[in-house]
Write a structure and sequence with these properties.
Elements (H helix, E strand, L loop, with lengths): L1 H8 L7 E4 L2 E4 H29 L1 H37 L3 H28 L1 H6 L5 H16 L1 H16 L3 H24 L8 H26 L17 H30 L3 H37 L3 H28 L1 H6 L5 H33 L4 H25 L4 H25 L12
Length: 463
Amino acid sequence: QKGNSMKFFHYDKTLSIMKTPQGTMTLSRIFVPFFTEMLLLNMMGTINTLMLSHYSDDAVAAVGSATQLLGMILTFYTVISTGASIVINHNLGAENTEKASDAALTSIILCGSLSLILGTCLSLAARPLLGLMHLQGQVLDYAVTYFRIAVQFSFFQAVTSSISGIFRSYGKPKISVCVSLTMNGMNAALAYLVIFRPINLPVSGVSGIAAAYVCSQLFGLLLILTFLRKIPLGLHFRQKNFASLKVAVTMLKVGIPGGISSISYNLSQVVSTSIIAILGVAAISTKIYVSNIVFYVYVFGMSLGLSTSLMIGWLAGAGKYEQAYRLNLQNLKLTISANVMLSFLIFLLAEPLLGCFTTDPQIISMGRHLMLIDILVEIGRGFNHVEENSLRGAGDVVYPMAVSMISCWTMSILFSYILGIRMGLGLTGCWIAFAMDEFFRGTAYLIRWRSRKWTTKTVAVHA
């Protein structure tokens, strides 16, 4: 029994080493920047929520709801950048640097064009779109104000995310961390000035928060463009022509299924928020507060999943399938163990953590109950973070799309309504449905990974 326990916790470091044209890459070198960036991103989001809670609970509910819809739009842009990352990773693994640089340029051009067009159209349709989420009165007005400003200038974040993905694929994730830290630090500072007004500014309230967000995104874009120009990656953009854009077909082929999956999931989250809105503003605020806190649980699993995906892309491109297979299962054990410990710790600290956001006893009571159920949610989510990202990294994108769409609309949405509304379980019922969704998807992805069918999905063109 002791031997089995030691075997379970044994970590083989040789699995997490890969040689690429950019040099020897290790999982730890990729993971630490990923983890740092995601942690910083969420910390800034938490700080914004904390500051908004001093303004009003209506503003928290409004901006939280608008941010969910905005997140779905930004995910739509990742159809291109996700496809580009897979093509870049596979071709770098196969040592075809020319095809990898073609994908990098195409990603920037397509992301920029799509976000300019879509952002303008969606800003004009802000009120009817947010009205579908059952928001009313002051909450709806706040949400429309924030969403209209943020989505109009979503071009900044779309292009920044595209270039960040390029840096990660080329083994330089620290650049993304630097940009993210600067951008989100600026956002937090501007949000503080807007809400607490130590100096007189021309903007205030929710519109001021939106303006702070846009200004920080613009600064982030300018900063990462500077890095792209100064840091040699061997991209040779000036030597490219229209023929270089032909790789867009392959990018979209592998990017669209992943994008549809992500959009479907984010849309289901928007619908679940509209279901929770039926329960009242207090329920929405509770969901937003709890989601902000539990993110600190799954940030580890998500970061490890994305790091594993990147490395599996390189390994698949190089044909090292056995190393990719074993690396995935090893990181899965690590993620599940971490999620169990962290989610249990969060539950034990539930009341003081929720007390940072609100003094409402109803919200604190509901939130603490949700955090107990969330232990199950995070276990299932750990499977998803590693397995789904690994499948995508290997180029197996259609199967995860089908599983995700079926699960999030039947398990998450249907059972949120049945358990939460029809059976009167409220937020508890919704969280049980979320756990069902995570476990169903995680199990399906693990079965697919163990089948090894993903080994036939590599998109690299060998030099």
